[in-house]
Sequence to fold (225 residues):
Amino acid sequence: SYVLTQPPSVSVAPGQTARITCGGNNIGSRNVHWYQHKAGQAPVLVVHDDIARPSGIPERLSGSNSGNTATLTISRVEAGDEADYYCQVWDSSSVPFFGGGTKLTV
Amino acid sequence: EVQLVQSGAEVKKPGESLKISCQGSGYTFTSYWIGWVRQMPGKGLEWMGMIYPGDSDIRYSPSFQGQVTMSADKSISTAYLQWTSLRASDSAMYYCVFRASGRYFFDYWGQGTLVTVSS
Fold:
Protein backbone atom coordinates (compact mmCIF):
# COMPACT_ATOMS: atom_id res chain seq x y z
CA SER A 1 0.00 0.00 0.00
CA TYR A 2 0.99 3.61 -0.40
CA VAL A 3 0.73 6.06 2.48
CA LEU A 4 -0.38 9.64 1.92
CA THR A 5 0.10 12.05 4.82
CA GLN A 6 -1.93 15.23 5.18
CA PRO A 7 -2.03 17.69 8.08
CA PRO A 8 -5.30 17.25 10.00
CA SER A 9 -6.10 20.93 9.86
CA VAL A 10 -5.14 24.21 8.26
CA SER A 11 -6.47 27.55 9.36
CA VAL A 12 -6.33 30.73 7.32
CA ALA A 13 -7.92 34.18 7.38
CA PRO A 14 -10.18 35.28 4.53
CA GLY A 15 -8.20 36.71 1.64
CA GLN A 16 -5.03 34.89 2.58
CA THR A 17 -3.46 31.87 0.90
CA ALA A 18 -3.96 28.33 2.16
CA ARG A 19 -1.53 25.57 1.33
CA ILE A 20 -2.57 21.99 1.98
CA THR A 21 0.16 19.40 1.66
CA CYS A 22 0.08 15.72 0.81
CA GLY A 23 3.21 13.77 1.57
CA GLY A 24 4.23 10.44 0.10
CA ASN A 25 7.34 8.56 -0.89
CA ASN A 26 8.47 10.04 -4.22
CA ILE A 27 4.94 11.33 -4.78
CA GLY A 28 6.34 13.61 -7.46
CA SER A 29 6.51 10.58 -9.74
CA ARG A 30 2.77 10.01 -9.42
CA ASN A 31 -0.27 11.94 -10.55
CA VAL A 32 -2.04 13.52 -7.60
CA HIS A 33 -5.70 14.46 -7.50
CA TRP A 34 -7.53 16.65 -5.00
CA TYR A 35 -11.13 16.64 -3.76
CA GLN A 36 -13.06 19.21 -1.79
CA HIS A 37 -15.63 17.77 0.59
CA LYS A 38 -18.11 20.12 2.18
CA ALA A 39 -20.34 18.98 5.01
CA GLY A 40 -23.51 17.32 3.78
CA GLN A 41 -22.38 17.20 0.17
CA ALA A 42 -20.57 14.73 -2.06
CA PRO A 43 -16.86 15.31 -2.64
CA VAL A 44 -15.92 17.39 -5.67
CA LEU A 45 -12.82 16.97 -7.80
CA VAL A 46 -10.93 20.27 -7.78
CA VAL A 47 -7.55 19.35 -9.24
CA HIS A 48 -6.47 16.30 -11.22
CA ASP A 49 -3.15 15.12 -12.59
CA ASP A 50 -1.23 17.44 -10.28
CA ILE A 51 -2.22 20.74 -11.86
CA ALA A 52 -5.34 20.44 -14.03
CA ARG A 53 -8.61 22.04 -12.97
CA PRO A 54 -11.96 20.60 -14.03
CA SER A 55 -14.41 22.93 -15.67
CA GLY A 56 -16.02 25.29 -13.17
CA ILE A 57 -13.24 25.18 -10.60
CA PRO A 58 -11.86 28.69 -10.00
CA GLU A 59 -8.28 29.55 -10.84
CA ARG A 60 -7.74 30.39 -7.17
CA LEU A 61 -7.28 26.66 -6.63
CA SER A 62 -4.06 25.25 -8.00
CA GLY A 63 -1.90 22.20 -7.53
CA SER A 64 1.76 21.34 -7.60
CA ASN A 65 3.74 18.18 -7.06
CA SER A 66 7.44 17.56 -6.61
CA GLY A 67 9.69 15.28 -4.64
CA ASN A 68 7.86 13.90 -1.66
CA THR A 69 5.15 16.55 -1.41
CA ALA A 70 2.12 17.57 -3.43
CA THR A 71 0.40 20.83 -2.56
CA LEU A 72 -3.04 22.26 -3.10
CA THR A 73 -2.91 26.04 -2.96
CA ILE A 74 -6.01 28.14 -2.47
CA SER A 75 -5.44 31.83 -3.08
CA ARG A 76 -7.66 34.63 -1.79
CA VAL A 77 -9.45 32.21 0.49
CA GLU A 78 -13.17 32.72 0.93
CA ALA A 79 -15.56 31.47 3.58
CA GLY A 80 -17.03 29.12 0.99
CA ASP A 81 -13.70 27.30 0.71
CA GLU A 82 -14.13 25.88 4.19
CA ALA A 83 -14.19 22.11 3.71
CA ASP A 84 -12.21 18.92 4.06
CA TYR A 85 -9.66 18.37 1.32
CA TYR A 86 -8.34 14.96 0.26
CA CYS A 87 -5.46 14.03 -1.98
CA GLN A 88 -5.56 10.81 -3.98
CA VAL A 89 -3.13 8.77 -6.03
CA TRP A 90 -3.39 5.49 -7.87
CA ASP A 91 -1.08 2.79 -6.56
CA SER A 92 1.00 0.58 -8.79
CA SER A 93 -1.25 -2.32 -7.81
CA SER A 94 -4.19 -0.53 -9.43
CA VAL A 95 -5.73 0.56 -6.15
CA PRO A 96 -6.49 4.22 -5.42
CA PHE A 97 -5.43 5.66 -2.10
CA PHE A 98 -6.74 8.73 -0.32
CA GLY A 99 -4.88 10.87 2.14
CA GLY A 100 -6.35 11.23 5.60
CA GLY A 101 -7.89 14.59 4.75
CA THR A 102 -7.25 18.16 5.87
CA LYS A 103 -9.90 20.36 7.43
CA LEU A 104 -9.60 23.89 6.12
CA THR A 105 -10.94 26.47 8.55
CA VAL A 106 -11.46 30.01 7.33
CA GLU B 1 -23.93 15.06 -18.26
CA VAL B 2 -22.91 12.13 -16.11
CA GLN B 3 -25.15 11.63 -13.09
CA LEU B 4 -24.99 9.04 -10.35
CA VAL B 5 -28.10 8.75 -8.17
CA GLN B 6 -27.91 6.61 -5.07
CA SER B 7 -30.62 4.96 -3.04
CA GLY B 8 -31.82 6.50 0.19
CA ALA B 9 -30.61 6.23 3.76
CA GLU B 10 -30.97 2.90 5.52
CA VAL B 11 -31.33 1.92 9.16
CA LYS B 12 -30.64 -1.73 9.87
CA LYS B 13 -29.97 -4.07 12.75
CA PRO B 14 -26.78 -6.07 13.18
CA GLY B 15 -26.95 -9.31 11.24
CA GLU B 16 -29.39 -8.02 8.65
CA SER B 17 -28.63 -7.90 4.95
CA LEU B 18 -28.60 -4.80 2.78
CA LYS B 19 -28.20 -3.83 -0.85
CA ILE B 20 -27.72 -0.19 -1.84
CA SER B 21 -27.79 1.10 -5.37
CA CYS B 22 -26.25 3.66 -7.69
CA GLN B 23 -27.97 4.44 -10.98
CA GLY B 24 -25.89 5.99 -13.72
CA SER B 25 -27.16 8.22 -16.52
CA GLY B 26 -25.78 10.53 -19.17
CA TYR B 27 -23.21 8.03 -20.42
CA THR B 28 -22.85 4.46 -21.67
CA PHE B 29 -23.17 2.57 -18.40
CA THR B 30 -21.37 -0.53 -19.61
CA SER B 31 -18.24 1.33 -20.74
CA TYR B 32 -17.02 2.89 -17.52
CA TRP B 33 -16.02 1.70 -14.07
CA ILE B 34 -18.20 2.42 -11.04
CA GLY B 35 -16.39 2.48 -7.72
CA TRP B 36 -17.47 2.64 -4.09
CA VAL B 37 -15.99 4.80 -1.36
CA ARG B 38 -16.72 4.56 2.36
CA GLN B 39 -16.62 7.38 4.88
CA MET B 40 -17.09 6.32 8.46
CA PRO B 41 -18.30 8.94 10.95
CA GLY B 42 -15.61 11.55 11.52
CA LYS B 43 -13.15 9.71 9.31
CA GLY B 44 -11.67 10.04 5.84
CA LEU B 45 -12.41 8.47 2.48
CA GLU B 46 -11.67 4.78 1.93
CA TRP B 47 -11.62 2.96 -1.39
CA MET B 48 -13.73 -0.19 -1.39
CA GLY B 49 -13.48 -1.40 -4.95
CA MET B 50 -14.99 -1.02 -8.40
CA ILE B 51 -16.96 -2.85 -11.04
CA TYR B 52 -16.94 -2.66 -14.83
CA PRO B 53 -20.57 -3.24 -15.77
CA GLY B 54 -19.67 -4.23 -19.34
CA ASP B 55 -18.27 -7.58 -18.26
CA SER B 56 -18.78 -7.48 -14.46
CA ASP B 57 -15.04 -7.36 -13.85
CA ILE B 58 -14.72 -6.51 -10.14
CA ARG B 59 -11.67 -5.25 -8.26
CA TYR B 60 -12.02 -5.23 -4.50
CA SER B 61 -9.74 -3.37 -2.16
CA PRO B 62 -7.98 -5.97 0.00
CA SER B 63 -9.55 -4.33 3.04
CA PHE B 64 -13.05 -5.04 1.77
CA GLN B 65 -12.57 -8.34 -0.04
CA GLY B 66 -15.03 -10.82 1.42
CA GLN B 67 -16.86 -8.14 3.43
CA VAL B 68 -19.08 -6.77 0.67
CA THR B 69 -20.30 -7.80 -2.77
CA MET B 70 -20.43 -5.51 -5.78
CA SER B 71 -22.68 -6.16 -8.73
CA ALA B 72 -24.39 -4.38 -11.59
CA ASP B 73 -27.56 -4.68 -13.65
CA LYS B 74 -26.86 -3.38 -17.15
CA SER B 75 -30.53 -3.37 -18.09
CA ILE B 76 -31.25 -0.58 -15.63
CA SER B 77 -27.79 1.05 -15.51
CA THR B 78 -27.47 0.37 -11.82
CA ALA B 79 -24.59 -0.76 -9.65
CA TYR B 80 -25.03 -2.32 -6.24
CA LEU B 81 -23.15 -2.73 -3.00
CA GLN B 82 -24.35 -5.55 -0.80
CA TRP B 83 -23.84 -6.93 2.69
CA THR B 84 -25.12 -10.30 3.88
CA SER B 85 -24.68 -9.67 7.61
CA LEU B 86 -24.25 -6.09 8.74
CA ARG B 87 -22.18 -5.02 11.71
CA ALA B 88 -22.30 -1.79 13.66
CA SER B 89 -18.92 -0.97 12.15
CA ASP B 90 -20.55 -0.85 8.70
CA SER B 91 -22.31 2.34 9.74
CA ALA B 92 -21.01 4.94 7.32
CA MET B 93 -21.72 7.09 4.30
CA TYR B 94 -21.17 5.24 1.04
CA TYR B 95 -20.48 7.03 -2.22
CA CYS B 96 -20.43 5.61 -5.70
CA VAL B 97 -17.97 7.18 -8.10
CA PHE B 98 -17.47 7.27 -11.86
CA ARG B 99 -14.13 6.48 -13.37
CA ALA B 100 -13.52 7.29 -17.02
CA SER B 101 -11.25 5.05 -19.03
CA GLY B 102 -7.62 6.01 -18.79
CA ARG B 103 -8.30 8.35 -15.92
CA TYR B 104 -7.12 7.70 -12.41
CA PHE B 105 -9.43 10.05 -10.57
CA PHE B 106 -13.16 10.37 -9.95
CA ASP B 107 -14.84 13.33 -11.55
CA TYR B 108 -18.40 12.33 -10.72
CA TRP B 109 -19.77 11.21 -7.37
CA GLY B 110 -23.15 10.01 -6.23
CA GLN B 111 -24.86 11.98 -3.46
CA GLY B 112 -24.07 9.28 -0.92
CA THR B 113 -26.10 6.69 0.97
CA LEU B 114 -26.02 6.80 4.75
CA VAL B 115 -26.13 3.36 6.35
CA THR B 116 -26.80 3.12 10.06
CA VAL B 117 -26.51 -0.24 11.79
CA SER B 118 -27.78 -0.26 15.34
CA SER B 119 -29.60 -2.63 17.61
About this structure: The first strand of chain B starts at residue 3 and ends at 6.
